[in-house]
Specification:
Number of helices: 3
Oligomer: single chain
Strand content: under 5%
Shape: rod-shaped
Largest sheet: none
Radius of gyration: 26 Å
Structural class: mainly alpha
Number of strands: 0
Length: 76
């Protein structure tokens, strides 16, 4: 099974952290992949997209109310 982009980023961040702690590249990679395999890495979820349909509908509804209000005010 292929890893997600978030998992790849978590592994890369862990490799960078381990290398900054003094491990060489191959050893840092081995540690990071073992941690991923064993479920020890914290993988951040991708932020969910806001629901735009409801927001657009709300904007259209508000615009229609404002247009109706403007027509009433012009009539007076």
């Amino acid at each position: 099974m292929a890893r997600s982009n978030q998992a790849n980023r978590a592994i890369a961040r862990k490799v960078e952290l381990l290398m900054s702690e003094g491990y060489d590249l191959k050893q840092a990679q081995a540690i990071a992949f073992r941690m991923y395999r064993d479920g020890e890495l914290r993988i951040r979820r991708a932020p969910s997209r806001p629901r735009r349909r409801g927001n657009n509908f709300r904007k259209v509804k508000t615009a229609a109310k404002l247009l109706g209000l403007a027509k009433i005010l012009r009539g007076k």
